[in-house]
Amino acid sequence: MRLELFVDDVSESLTFYRDVLGFEVMGENASYKSLRFGESRIAVQDVRTLEPGHPLAGPGKRGLGVEFVLEVGDVTALHQRVQKQWAHVTGLKRQAWGLTDFRVTDPDGYYWRITEQRR
């Protein structure tokens, strides 16, 4: 699966996904960046490139009603990295289902649960 996130500021989103979370840039142009983290793929695209009337083109907070889940090999190390660089992050928590995770919100309000990989 690949996600495309429509954002207000592609540069700000790129900084978050590349520099804070550790995604690798795979392809890019001025209004679109393709990124990956292991097998996960996302793209960030300037929301102003959408056609007028597109259901995602309207103003307002983005990402409502969705939680993205990213499985990583070392959730503790990534959490430490994110905490140093980003204000909108929760603490690490061992969940009732047995996995440890943390939550972080990107510059446009997209909500991520970063969790350890299932064994």
TrEMBL record:
Looking up InterPro entries in the UniProt record yields: Glyas_Bleomycin-R_OHBP_Dase, Glyas_Fos-R_dOase_dom, VOC_core
| VOC domain location | 1-117
* A Pfam family per the record: Glyoxalase
Protein name as it appears in the record: VOC family protein
